[in-house]
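Render HTH araC/xylS-type domain-containing protein in 3D.
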Amino acid sequence: MLVVMRHRPDTQRADLPLPETQSFRVSDLDEARAICTEYYYEVALDLLDRSRPLAFAADLVRLGPVTVGDIRFGADVAIGADILDAYHVNLPVAGAIGSEHRGAITVASPRRAAVYRPGAGAHAGRWSADCRSLGIRVDRASLEAELEALVGRPIRGPIRFGPSFDTTMGAGLTWSRMANLLRSELENPHSALLQPLVAERYAQGMLSGLLFATDHQYAEALTAHVPPARPRTVRRAVQVMEADPTHPFTTAELARLAGVSARALQEGFRRHVGLSPMAYLQHVRMGYAREELRHPVPGRDTVAAIAHAWGFGHLGRFAAAYRERFGESPSATLRGR
């Protein structure tokens, strides 16, 4: 069943992608192939041992440019795609997947993720019956736009990722935990990650996180020193946020509007505002949340509903930040005390 978490009618925007989840359990090879094609790519899928029936299971969540699927076949299969139109990561939870991509042989395991880039195909020699993996599809245009925003200049894609990265330490561990958290939230129908304002920022975090987790030709540029944005540029970003606080801004988008790189804008905000761009946006949204708490709609508004509507995914942290800023709890404001 398709599960769609919708934002509050008074703050939802038509241009904000709605997160979606889907679960499948099929035993027919053609049905499994069709599901993989719909959510990923056109694939060739074959049983390697006809004595063991297929038991395909897929639990999927799509947040705009990022699709994460928990995939199991329950039988030994060979799977491959002749053409990839997106970046892709295989992150096994159990078992291993050996594959060939652009002439390189890679073995993905729970300790090492395999990375594939658009253009050429990828083929797994054998996906064993006991293997379970997160298959992560990342939209090409979105990832390359995120990289351009971070480095502050045009790039020539595709990004030449290394064939794999370590998921046991550093940025690779962080990114794998982000992917696994998103998968685990499939079991929570009221997850904050499925609220559109939160989902958009989480997906953007996965894009930038992947760029820091992997080796590629722009890796050094991501960590090089950049001068901060000037106060005029910072003021421009502030004006944009305050004029449209319900828009799902990201640092990358604000940087494009201000005409600087994302890292320069972050440094400019740190120096001249004392907050990151996203922290400042939350500051603005908290002010609007307070107004809703002070003037609630009877029978509809609760602290949790208002917090989630304005993009605050963790109710406890929202309440603590609210109390620190306004000197009272959100529930006290709601009660008019």
